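Exam review. A common question shows you a sequence with its structure tokens and asks you to describe the fold in words. Practice with the pair below. Do the first one on your own.
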Amino acid sequence: MKIRLKQLATLIILLFATQLTFGQFKSDSTDTKRVKFAAIPLINYSRTQGTILGATVSGFYQINKKDTISPHSSTMAVGIYTAEKSWMIGGMQQLYWKEDKWRAKAAVINGDINFQFYNEGSGANMGEFEDYSNEMLMVIGQIQRKVWRRIYAGPYAEYNMT
């Protein structure tokens, strides 16, 4: 199964940019930390990119300590670099406030993905590998207002450049 570069870039962006809310929880009143941090390192290897190194760092916090209904807001930074000199950096923000009546999301992702393909040429033995790269920039913004129970509505904007 062949995956085209735009499909791969879209898949990578969705994996890093999509944030799901699995439920609401109340903050622990005995916890004195204002921001909780989580970091996830990435070390991988693939035949197309070679060694892949990266990390995700997230911070989770309440915008208003008195608001025990809103889920924790989060700020995330992502960075990846590969042996093929591909790279991607991004930042994501997800905010909840006013007892979860308002929600906002924003993301910026920039990168350059380098690949090769085999060009057979005119003869069976004339083939060679061709290098190519795909620069990408994605900016996402969304704000939503609760309209009924767990239903939210609001504008969404997305800019993609590849």
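Now try the second one, then compare your answer with the model answer below.
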Amino acid sequence: LLYLLSDEFSQDVKRANFEYYEPRTTHKSSLSIASYAILASELGDTGKAYGYLRRVANSDLENIRGNTELGVHAAELGGTWQIAVRGLAGVRVRGGVLFVDSRLPEDWQGMSFRTWFRDNLLAVVISEGEVVVSMEQGRDALEMNICGQRETLEPGGTTRVRR
């Protein structure tokens, strides 16, 4: 719930619960690691979030669950994307507004991805110094919050915010 209903809990409550449960959790569920990674990122522990990302991304390659011969773990494939986008890139929807507030691992120079939001195809490029969001498809202006700044993204437009 701390991940799914993130806005309903204070950072202190999230931190206390994360610190209590994280060392006690076995992560036997393929959904567990992604939730913990996203929460770790939100709490500012990008090192731990990145470690979880690597673990999930390699889960089938390393056969960590001992059953890869039965097929890939689709939940972990989706979890990998969620850790990257919702966790490290900090993409959230709050009050109908798209937020981007990235927390990249130390050794990353940047990341980029595309996502759909309200029938708009957005390209997001995050580097060490800025976040650039472009509307590749869409017909209506879009209100966004990028790194704490309110921005209006026009169809076909691009906005840049210094980090």
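Model answer, second protein: The chain has four helices and eight strands. The CA atoms of residues 5 and 32 lie 15 Å apart. Full marks require stating both points clearly.
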